[in-house]
Amino acid sequence: MAGRKGFDIVVVGAGHAGCEAAAAASAMGLRTCLVTIHLETIAQMSCNPAIGGLAKGHLVREIDALGGLMGLLADETGIQFRLLNRSRGGAVQAPRAQCDKAAYRLAMKHRLERIANLSIFQGIVAQVVVKKGAAAGVRTIDGTFLPAKAVIITPGTFLNGLIHIGLHSYPAGRANEPPSVELAEQLKKLGLRILRLKTGTPMRLDRDTIDWTAFTPQPGDDEPVPFSYRTRGPLKNKVDCHLGHTNAATHAVIRRNLAKSPLYGGKIKGIGPRYCPSIEDKVVKFPERARHQFFLEPEGIETTEVYVNGLSSSLPYEVQREILDTIPGLDQAKIVRPAYGIEYDAVSPTELFPTLETRKIRRLYLAGQINGTSGYEEAAAQGLMAGINAALAVKKKQPFVLRRDEAYIGVLIDDLVSSGVEEPYRLFTSRAEYRLMLRIDNTDRRLMGYGRELGLVPDAVWGEYLAKQERIAKAAAFLKKTRVKTEAGDSLSLCEFLKKPEIRLEDVLKWSEFPGALSDEESRFLESETKYEGYIRKQEREIAKAARADSMKIPGGIDFGRVPGLTREAVEKLEKKRPTTLGEARKISGMTPAAVQNVGLYLEILRKKGAQRPPVPRGTGPDDE
Amino acid sequence: MLEDTIIAVATPPGFGGLGVVRISGKRALAVAGRVFEAKSGGKRPFPVRRPIFGTIRDPERRAALDEAFLTYFKAPRSYTREDVVELSVHGSPAVLESILRLGAKAGARLARPGEFTLRAHLNGRLDIIQAEAVNDLIRSVSLTQARISSRQLGGSLSRRIARLRGRLISLLAAVEAGLEFPEEGLRSGPAAWRRSLSAIVSDIDRLVLSHEAGRALSQGVTLAITGRTNVGKSTLFNALLEEDRAIVTPFPGTTRDFLREELVIDGIVFHLVDMAGLGRAAHPVEKRGIARGQRIAREADGLLLVIDASRAWSEEDERLVRRYLSRNAILVMNKTDLPGKVDRKKVRAIAGENPIVEVSALRGKNIDALRGAIRARFAPRTPETEEVILHARQQNCLQEALGALRRAEKLLAKRHSEEVPAEEIRAAISFIGELTGEVRAEEVLEEIFGRFCVGK
């Protein structure tokens, strides 16, 4: 498979990060190789059978606007679709789809196999080959050398993976799949700081052994909203999810068996995600709650496996069995795969540049769970950005980094590389400072231009985008200039009318019909822009102000040791990087906002030195007036 | 930590019984050791937080300059959290200056104004509110202000603000949880949020209102003496100040510009303003004086409205009184040493709530009663236990926060989708964070997971 000249880029791992990385790099014209342990598990959804949700759905849209694959495939293989927060404002609406896991895997494999300059190769990578401080390829466990100009590592939970069920544990990257031990050891040797994290997955049940009458059906939307700008034709709901609850008896079983939990028994040392707690965590941490909800989610059409969202656990199989016995409707249910917890190695993301390249080894990129995140969408977003940046580096072009004010991808990666993680990181809309501007209804306006420039957005999609913008511009002008009289006799523009909280665009257009048709998506965009207008303008001003602060020049000869209140570590970092602006100082990994603030304050003092008062009130001194 | 060591005289300039030099920084001890020699001949290290007696010597000339006590505060248990040495000597400016010079030679740098406190802030010992309180305490002219500042330096206001901020973060976390986890069936909702919001709003409102008293305490209360020409305003001004500050003549319109002096009653500062009388102007200069006077009267915190009791009540008196009576005022009936021509009952009827004090400024009669009335009417009221906002900066932050929270209240009341009120609450949190000089976003998420049970 490897050509004589080797590859431009080798991607290790074919999960959600690896697939996006490989697809992007190869679409950008680079000879790419995707290496994975099993070709059967390409794009495996290891945990829940769903893609999207709040912030995550936003990410999928962004991936799509940049030319990535996840949204398109989620639409293609989705079996139930919902737009979350439909009754709320546009900024907090996000699509989510239940996907057919097997179909998703196959669809991804099928698509990757058809990319001309992408090779797929089955193998276990044992080593990144480093030459002169730069990644030069990888070597598999059987000694095969795959030379490359850049390497992207996306191992998911496989690095030193250790599965726990009750007090039993065994090394594995995913249930019954071999972990990556050699690669984990080598990354440690390369000097990257390693974290130990933990996550878990619930049991899967046999659909035909569940008494469905005991649960409340949760149907999909009547008019599903797709993730992708490339999806054609209506989406169809094929299944329902179901809502159920635990009860006092369930909690009693869990409490009685806590000693058998590897976490409470002290066997698991890794740090788990707080927002995705196991059922035993929930029972212990919220003793006042009489019940906890869970969802029954089908894993696909051709399978009877059902995912129990909310009952993640690492208790022994017998206890899992006992838990189900306490829940009416599940008392006869058969467990086809037990729940388990898994500990794995990750690399502290502060080891990375915002391009996801490691600071210590050039041309080595990390993406996905290895960077301390959790979630398919977070992984895919990083994979896409790592693939793009590795390709740009090989082409000797400027890197591609998104800002916090233009994309959730920017928020995600900036959070990771500048603050690091202490537990598996999940994106939330509240992590964004400018949430009202980062919406699903304006993702194409924010990002598709970049995707186009990178060569990842096809002509047809771009053409449609341009036509859409023209329709939106026309409609916006129409709303501004068309005036109507209210019952009270005031004259209002349609725009002003639309600003009222309870008014929707369709209500406005009843007053004066817009000559032209608008899609739901376009209507949502116009509504958001109108309703949030005051806030958006204010946030734009804040962004401009922050940009000005970041452009504050740091004089070349400055002695960072004299900046008050900095830790030795911060001084060393500043001395080493010698940033020329405050913005650059802010981007140095490990620089806290407070440290940056102190540098800014110090610059301010230098500027005013002697002439005026320092910006902080005076204490005692001989120069007191 | 800072690399350089700073030195300054900490006592006021001029000759004094004592003068204190303060040195802060890594080399504080070394710098002090170059100029100070312990009497006991004991070598360094100096004992911590215990004064030792010795002499100040110029290391080159070996000549003793003064006797001194040295106190060493070891980092981080010092004002700046750095090593601090205080040298207490006799307060001769020449000696103090030579100590600074010797200190500079030994490697210390002259401190800029407020730099010790700046270091205390940057080294995390004081937040901005506390740093402001340091300055207030030093500059306080009244015991009330000193008491408030001292309490704020101890962190009482900072803690109150921190509690407010904590409550806002909890509230935001509850709102955000509903947005981020729409399917979790979380139990708190708009009604509960509005309840906690309105409690927070009324707390901040109380702080905002306290600024009126705070401003009066920190900056003093401006009192304008106003009235028609020749009613004896300047005489009253002098009488209150107990000195002949304003020129007094029997001719109307003597005072053309205004005079401003400090009057201290029971530790409270009043800025007493004497100005041109209001009436028909004879001269363009006087005209401008009157216009200026009217502006001052408008902007003053209170008015002493002077009426000549020895002249017949005129329409002009009536107009003037009616015009200013809506304001915070005391009606001063002057010239009671002369036969009275004003109907007291009539004046009382017009005066309404405003107190009337009869004086003879010329004879100094009843001036003490007027002082008492001024204190009672215009002195800021400050309950012992309540926090008082002394600074315009703090006041601005609080008002901005209050504005945002009131908008949030309104939006929630109108059942607006929560991401917008959330935006307002976030803004309020950042204004409150500005108060103490700290803003962080991660805490909201901390709260979500500390308080809520959320599944995947």
Structure description:
The complex is a heterodimer of chains A (625) and B (456). Chain A is of the alpha+beta class. Among the domains of chain A are: 204-341, Beta Barrel (Elongation Factor Tu (Ef-tu), domain 3); 474-541, tRNA uridine 5-carboxymethylaminomethyl modification enzyme MnmG/GidA (Arc Repressor Mutant, subunit A, Orthogonal Bundle); 551-608, DNA polymerase, domain 1 (Orthogonal Bundle), CATH 1.10.150. Chain A has 19 helices and 22 strands. In chain A, the strands form 5 sheets. In chain A, strands 1, 2, 6, 7, 8, 9 and 20 form a 7-stranded mixed β-sheet that branches. Chain A has a 6-stranded antiparallel β-sheet with strand order 14-15-16-17-13-18, with no helix packed on it. In chain A, a hairpin with a 6-residue loop joins β16 and β17. In chain A, α2 (56-65) packs across α11. With 456 residues, chain B is an alpha/beta fold. Helices cover 46% and strands 18% of the residues of chain B. Chain B has 15 helices and 13 strands. In chain B, the strands form 2 sheets. Chain B has a 7-stranded mixed β-sheet. A 6-stranded mixed β-sheet of chain B has the order 9-10-8-11-12-13, with helices on both faces. In chain B, α4 (128-139) runs antiparallel to α5 (143-153), α6 runs antiparallel to α14 (419-436) and α6 (156-180) packs across α15 (442-451). The two termini of chain B are 44 Å apart. The relative contact order of chain B is 0.11. Residues 440-456 of chain B have low confidence and may be disordered.
User: What fold name stands as the CATH topology of one domain in chain A?
Assistant: Elongation Factor Tu (Ef-tu), domain 3
Please give the oligomerization state of what you see: heterodimer
Strand order of the largest sheet of chain B: 3-4-5-6-2-1-7
Question: How many beta-strand segments of chain B?
Answer: 13
SS-derived structural category of chain B: alpha/beta
Biggest interchain interface, per-side counts: A-B, 61 and 62 residues
| Overall morphology of chain A | globular
Total helical segments of chain A: 19
